[in-house]
Amino acid sequence: MGRSVDEHVHQVAAVIRGAAQRRAQDPPLECRVVPGLTGRLAAPAVSTLDVPGFDNSQMDGFAVYAADLDRAGDLPVTLPTVAHVVAGDTAPPRLDPGTAAPIMTGAPVPPGADAVVPVERTRPGDFGPVAGGGLVEFSGPVASGTFVRPRGADVRTGEAVLEPGAPLHAAAVGALTVAGVTTVEVVPPLRVAIVATGAELVSGAVPDSNSRALLAHAHELGLAATAHVVEDDPAALEDLLNRLVTDHDVILTTGGVSAGTREVVRQVLEGRPGAWFGHVAVQPGGPQGLARWSDGAREVPVVCLPGNPVSVLVSFELFLRSPLAQAAGRVAWRPSGTAVLTEPLTSPAGRVQVRRGRMEPDGRVSLVGEAGSHLAVSYARADLLVFVPESVTAREAGDTVEWWRIA
Amino acid sequence: MGRSVDEHVHQVAAVIRGAAQRRAQDPPLECRVVPGLTGRLAAPAVSTLDVPGFDNSQMDGFAVYAADLDRAGDLPVTLPTVAHVVAGDTAPPRLDPGTAAPIMTGAPVPPGADAVVPVERTRPGDFGPVAGGGLVEFSGPVASGTFVRPRGADVRTGEAVLEPGAPLHAAAVGALTVAGVTTVEVVPPLRVAIVATGAELVSGAVPDSNSRALLAHAHELGLAATAHVVEDDPAALEDLLNRLVTDHDVILTTGGVSAGTREVVRQVLEGRPGAWFGHVAVQPGGPQGLARWSDGAREVPVVCLPGNPVSVLVSFELFLRSPLAQAAGRVAWRPSGTAVLTEPLTSPAGRVQVRRGRMEPDGRVSLVGEAGSHLAVSYARADLLVFVPESVTAREAGDTVEWWRIA
């Protein structure tokens, strides 16, 4: 049973989204608000402060009573200045009507004053003596509230800074800090089990690079992941799945899903309720599967990838990176674009071909390595994935292709 | 002196690139190849294995002597089968001419055999008895080498898996693992000092959210960063810069660069060789500076950001995120696109306005918070930056805007 790339993208995304929603029901972690905080908020983070903490000036200028400038439309109004209010001042004295206070951006607006006029709209256009005792001329009226940032305009004490589900990125750390929030409740991270199948991995005849690469991807996204290797033996895989289902939220397998005679993942999972095994219209990464595993008490989704290293990496980019990143509260989309090829390529009909490429200094795309799904080193040397649509069987040098940035 | 956004992007990128190049001259770190490895390679990583380690099959099929099928163009050729070769087998017996070995994808091609015919191009189209002793019919010839992945095709023992400068991402961890590389020499990470200026921060009147947010950004990119707060006092800032220059590669400052009377960063750095302070045509984030600080022995660049929290975050996204990510070997570009607005907005002439927004379920973009650069909480609630070009002063609901994804 075949599937388009888009359909499998949606199916896997739905499965990961479901796992993340179930995980969000688990008891939250209490975390300190520090750089390095990741994940998503489990409960509203409530502000302990008004932000800003006081009415303050949005401009370098003069704090005034707006009413004093009402008649400045006809004739300029000149006011005497008082001492300069600077950022860091906490309690400037009350401003007397009929005077103006030179004020810095961010400095507290003196009690009484209700507007700020930018210095460049005054004469002589500077702040005058720091201690006050100068004169400043205004050539027009000003509305009450102009260039005043009111206390609590960003958030008020007791209001939620961020709601459940909010990603805890750098800007969130900044906002929580400014609102005086020191600890937050965080959704525990999705626990991902990575299962590599294959006697050649258990024996060490071939290094288990798939698990390492998937662990590294999970690490980059801030997910908790464990890695496991299992023989091509259905009973051994079933035992392992029964152990993993108790304390993981998603299981990823590599290998054992294609048309050979020892396809252990397929043998164990195909035909179970909700399982799908088949071909996605992509090369490499065609053989794919989706299933559920239950030990009777708990059920988790199993996303079954093919076993060749390039197929694993391409499958991760196409199907897993975005939904896993979303669960982790990260932006991990790949930059993409189009460019012309430096060389020709051929591609199978009816499948999206994904090649490895490099962006040349002149903005064209060259290919890195052949199409073979075993060329893990070539993949690591590339900085682009290059996409050839299903309907295309050949592209010439100078033809346009779509690319995704992977490095 | 004014600058376009693009010009400042290029200037800051050049400064960070220079700092990264100087840092790459420092002694490399020897790091184990494990998930969690980051940064860039300092020296070639040399393969200790041939990859693949043996000639192996690219398909599920039959390993044959190609010469045996030369005459299969006219009449089908039928060969007796020997025992099945599976992945995990390390030393299959030599294939006798005139026989065919059923073989799994990835399994070693038996000595003597030089081509693989996929099972679906044979009759009866299955693998026959696992122990051999069956018959298989081929209806066409096959070229020597077909569907055989030669030993060492990806990389050979003693060849470089990856060259200096290569980013150590998940695919690199996979490639190094498959090539038997257990340790690599890594360029030491860029050491970033973050300096927040302002009496209101030192006194605690306003929480220092800028440093926290910048530390969190640095952490996300895998950079080493330290944070410091200093009074609006030129001597104190000079002292701090003298201490930081000895063991940091880039210094970022926030605040103290605009037109007020206590602009300590500008006072200390403006007019020094190579320094530029002025206005970039963007709102927020207009006042910017670039300088160098030297203690006589060592010189590092100083990138001077404005002090308002939203200005800091927008400046980081526009000017710093991409070059710092590049130094760290990360892909950290922001996904971008265009969409129509749900509501009108106004924007200053001659400046790119950067607003905070949200992608609505219908694909339109709504605005989050006002334009004010003090609204740090609104920023953290947004998932988009929304860009209004310099030449535009108003947009209506339904008009198209450009966005970048930030969450």
Automatic annotation (TrEMBL), chains A, B:
Pfam families: MoCF_biosynth, MoeA_C, MoeA_N
PANTHER family documented for this protein: GEPHYRIN (PTHR10192:SF5), MOLYBDOPTERIN BIOSYNTHESIS PROTEIN (PTHR10192)
GO cellular component entries: cytosol
Species for this entry: Aeromicrobium flavum
Keyword Cell cycle attached: no
Lineage: Bacteria, Bacillati, Actinomycetota, Actinomycetes, Propionibacteriales
Family per similarity comment: Belongs to the MoeA family.
Cofactor(s) this protein cannot do without: Mg(2+)
Name of this chain's protein: Molybdopterin molybdenumtransferase
Functional summary from the UniProt entry: Catalyzes the insertion of molybdate into adenylated molybdopterin with the concomitant release of AMP.
Keywords, comma-separated and alphabetical: Magnesium, Metal-binding, Molybdenum, Molybdenum cofactor biosynthesis, Transferase
